[in-house]
Write a structure and sequence with these properties.
Elements (H helix, E strand, L loop, with lengths): L1 H21 L14 E5 L6 E5 L8 E3 L4 E9 L4 E9 L7 E3 L12 E6 L8 H4 L10 H14 L2 E6 L10 H13 L6 E7 L7 E4 L2 E4 L1 E6 L5 H18 L4 E7 L11 E8 L4 H5 L2 H17 L2 H4 L2 E3 L19 H23 L1 H19 L7
C-alpha cells in the first residue's frame, strides 16, 4: 500500500511540474510588488539613481541620463536594494549637428544589414498581453517585429531570428549564443538583442518630439572580450540620441555578464520598456531607435534620408558612421572555434601520454632524435 501511495505522490509531483512549465507565468504588477532592485546614491542614500528588474552585483556600473558614471559598491538581495558610488562625469562622443530646418537630399548606402533576436522570448507587457510572461513567444516579439519594420523602412535589411531559448534562466544566453552566431555568419553590421525590463512604469515613461513613448536602456557586458568596443558603441548611440532625440535613451547599465557581446564588437542589448508600460508606447520608440542606429552605423552620407531629415549639418560637414563601405561587425566566433579545436587536440594528446607508456616512449624518441640531429649529437639506443 505504501508503495502505491509513493508512486501516486510521485505522479502528482511530475504532473505539477509539467503544468508549471507549460502554464503562463503570471506575476504581480511591479508597481505594487517589489520584484526589482532599487539603487541608491552612496552620497545621498535617500536619492534613487535607478531601478532594474535584472540581476545587480557589486562592481556593476551605471551611466545616468545626465552622463554621470557610478559603480555599485554593495547589494542587499533580501531587500532588493543597492548602493552606488559616483565615479566621474563621463564624456560621450559629441555630434556637431542641430535639428534640421530646411530640406536636404541624402543618398542612402545600399547593402546595409543588421541582426535582431531575443534571448528572453517569454517577456510580455501587461497592456495588452495581460500577463508578464508566457512559456513561448511573448509580447517582446511584437516589439522585435516593430524594430525590424522600422529598420526596413530605412533601407536596412534585417536578419530576424525568433528562435526560442526557453526557459528564462541563467542558461538562456548560452542557448541564444547559437542564434547570435548564426546571425553573424550572415554578415551583419550590428547585432541587437531585444528585451524588456521589469520595473515601475514611471521609470521608462518619456516624451520625444512631443510624443509620449517608452525610453530605452542600453546594457553592456563587462565580462565580454569586446567590452571597450561595445561600451564605445553604447556611448555613441546615447551621445547622438541625446543630441537629436533627447529622452529616447534612458541610461546605460554595465553588468557582469557578457550578453553574447563577446561574439562581435558591435552588439547591444536593448531594454525596451518594462512589463508595466503599454506595448503601444514601446512600439512608438522603434522608429526613433532605428533612425539613431542607421546614422550611428552608416553616417550622415549613407543613412536613409528619413534618418537624416531631423538634423542639419554645419558648413556641409558629414557624420562618419562606425561601418565603412566594406566592413561587417567583427566576429570572434571563428577564433573561439579554432582555439577550441586546438585545446581539444592538446587535451587528447596529454591523456594519451599520461596513460600510454608506449606513446610516451615514441614521442620522447621522436624529439630526442630530432634535436640530436639538429645539434649533431644523435645517440643510438642499443
Amino acid at each position: 500500500m505504501k508503495k502505491i501511495i509513493s508512486v501516486f505522490a510521485l505522479m502528482i509531483c511530475v504532473l505539477s511540474l509539467c503544468i508549471g512549465i507549460a502554464s503562463p507565468k503570471i506575476c504581480c504588477h511591479a508597481d505594487t510588488a517589489k520584484n526589482y532592485y532599487t539603487i541608491y546614491d552612496g552620497e545621498d542614500k535617500k536619492k534613487v539613481l535607478f531601478t532594474r528588474g535584472g540581476e545587480v552585483n557589486a562592481g556593476d556600473n551605471y551611466l545616468s541620463k545626465d552622463n554621470k558614471f557610478y559603480e555599485i559598491t554593495s547589494v542587499n538581495d533580501s531587500e532588493k536594494t543597492a548602493i552606488a558610488k559616483f565615479i566621474r562625469d563621463e564624456k560621450l562622443p559629441e555630434f556637431d549637428v542641430k535639428r534640421k530646418t530646411s530640406e536636404k537630399t541624402t543618398s542612402a548606402k545600399k547593402n546595409k544589414k543588421v541582426g535582431v533576436y531575443h534571448t528572453h522570448n517569454d517577456e510580455c507587457y501587461y497592456t495588452p498581453d495581460g500577463i508578464d510572461s508566457v512559456y513561448g513567444k511573448g509580447g517582446i516579439h511584437d516589439v522585435g517585429a516593430g524594430l525590424v519594420n522600422s529598420f526596413e523602412k530605412l533601407g536596412v535589411s534585417v536578419i530576424y531570428r525568433e528562435d526560442l531559448h526557453l526557459p528564462h534562466n541563467s542558461g538562456a544566453y548560452t542557448r541564444s549564443q547559437v542564434t547570435a552566431s548564426a546571425i553573424l555568419n550572415e554578415g551583419v553590421d550590428g547585432l541587437f538583442d531585444v528585451h524588456r525590463d521589469s520595473t515601475a512604469r514611471r521609470e521608462y515613461l518619456t516624451t520625444v518630439d512631443g510624443t509620449q513613448m517608452s525610453a530605452v536602456r542600453l546594457v553592456v557586458g563587462k565580462s565580454s572580450a569586446n567590452y571597450e568596443e561595445n561600451r564605445d558603441f553604447a556611448y555613441t548611440i546615447k551621445g547622438y540620441a541625446d543630441k537629436v532625440y533627447p529622452g529616447l535613451i534612458k541610461d546605460i547599465f554595465f553588468g557582469k555578464g557578457n550578453y553574447n557581446q563577446q561574439l562581435t564588437t558591435r552588439a547591444m542589448l536593448f531594454e525596451m520598456g518594462c512589463e508595466n508600460i503599454e506595448k503601444a508606447l514601446v512600439l512608438k520608440t522603434t522608429p526613433y531607435l532605428a533612425k539613431v542606429i542607421d546614422v550611428v552605423l552608416y553616417g550622415s552620407e549613407n543613412a536613409s534620408p528619413v534618418s537624416t531629415e531631423d538634423i542639419e549639418m554645419k558648413d556641409g560637414s558629414v557624420l562618419t558612421g562606425m561601418v565603412d563601405s566594406n566592413s561587417k561587425a567583427n566576429s570572434n566566433d571563428t577564433l573561439y572555434v579554432v582555439l577550441g579545436v586546438i585545446g581539444t587536440i592538446i587535451l587528447i594528446i596529454s591523456l594519451i601520454l599520461i596513460f600510454s607508456k608506449t606513446a610516451r616512449y615514441k614521442v620522447g624518441r621522436f624529439f630526442s632524435e630530432m634535436f640530436a640531429g639538429i645539434f649533431g649529437k644523435k645517440k643510438v639506443k642499443e
